[in-house]
Amino acid sequence: MKSEQLSAIDVASGNLVPMSSKFPILSSTNHWNGIVLEQHHLPAFECPELCLQQHSINIWLGNSCQIDWRLAGGRLHSTQMRRGLVNITPKGIPTQARWHEEIKFLLVSFDSSLFKRVADDLIVGSDVYDRLRLRTIEIIPQRGVCDQQIFHLGMALKAELKAGYPSGKLYGESVAIALAAHLLKTYSGTRQPIAELEVNLSERQLRQIIDYIYDNLALELTLVELASLVNMSSYSFCRWFKRLMGISPHQYVIKCRIERAKFLLTYSQLPIIEITYQIGCSSQSNFTTIFRKHVGITPKAYREMI
User: Which of 94, 144, 250, 284 would you call most buried, defined as having the most Cβ atoms within 10 angstroms of its Cβ?
Assistant: First the structure.
């Protein structure tokens, strides 16, 4: 899947250049809000000094390999990378790297606006007003760290991308928010603990959300859309919804879609392709993937056994 590449600023020339010398093997560009996932396979190369325009994570997929790197014109370091290890590079930090054999990795890049939205719901220390300080906290660069949460979320996004986005935009947005919050809590420059603002909304507001989901299952629902119904940020909404319902918003939407699909397969003569669109799946293939994952059989087999 080829697409427009993510870009960075070449420090020497000041020009905007691709972040990679080759097109990615996979790319989610223009699909999920706030996050882009790419999979790269690159030959041995010496990368010029680049200044990234987004906070970025590299998740190593290939064999063990030595990477030589320097940040902000500092001294040269070497890191032995192996599958599952993670590099974290903040935006605006001049970065240079070289490697001497083929490398394989996932590149996860974030919109700055996503970090600002998540930071609005986080506080430093015990003072609620300290959340304003979090907006200026920098992410500390990391090389070769073992972070299982980042690895598993990255691999989940990769699987979703390869499958053709069967879980929809809501899933990618949820993972993006979880990753941004994890980076702010774990790799920020503050020495004080970062906590979360408490949210407390009514059951009437929960019913409003649930009714909206049921009424709009045929649409491509987003976190921003659902959160705006109760005047919340996406991050606070995810936490609040899961606390009350026991599952995340995207899991609840999928559950509703499966239940409606079962009803239509049982009580209507609609073609499966029509049911696909009525429950908000982008293709019959995606519908089949999700249905089989949650029910254990395909929609066609489910209808035939009734």
Answer: 250
pLDDT per position as a tens digit, 95-117? 899 999 999 999 999 988 888 88
pLDDT higher at 8 or 233: 233
Residues 238/201, Cβ–Cβ less than 8 Å: no
CATH fold for the domain made of 7-187:
Jelly Rolls (2.60.120)
Residue found under tokens 């979090």: 134
3-class DSSP state of 132? helix
Residue 77 β-bridge partners = 69
Pick the CATH number of 199-305 from 3.30.70.980, 3.40.50.1820, 3.40.50.450, 1.10.10.60: 1.10.10.60
| Cα 89 to Cα 140: distance, rounded to the nearest angstrom | 8
Q: Determine phi and psi for 197, rounding to 5 degrees.
A: -70, 140
- Digit-coded pLDDT (tens) for 19-55: 665 778 888 877 888 899 999 998 998 888 888 888 9
Sheet containing 26-27, strands listed edge to edge, beginning at the edge strand earlier in sequence? 26-27, 35-42, 103-110, 55-60, 85-89, 142-146
CB-based contacts of 238: which residues, under 8 Å, 6+ apart? Answer: 174, 177, 178, 223, 248, 249
On the CB side of 32, CA atoms within 13 Å amount to: 29
N residues, the chain: 306
Q: What residues are paired with 95 via a beta bridge?
A: 50, 71
**Residue 293 confidence (pLDDT) above 50:** yes
Cα distances from 36 to residues 7, 108, 223, 256, in angstroms, run 12, 6, 16, 27
In the chain, where the domains are located: 7-187, 199-305
For 211-223, the pLDDT digits (tens) are: 999 999 999 999 9
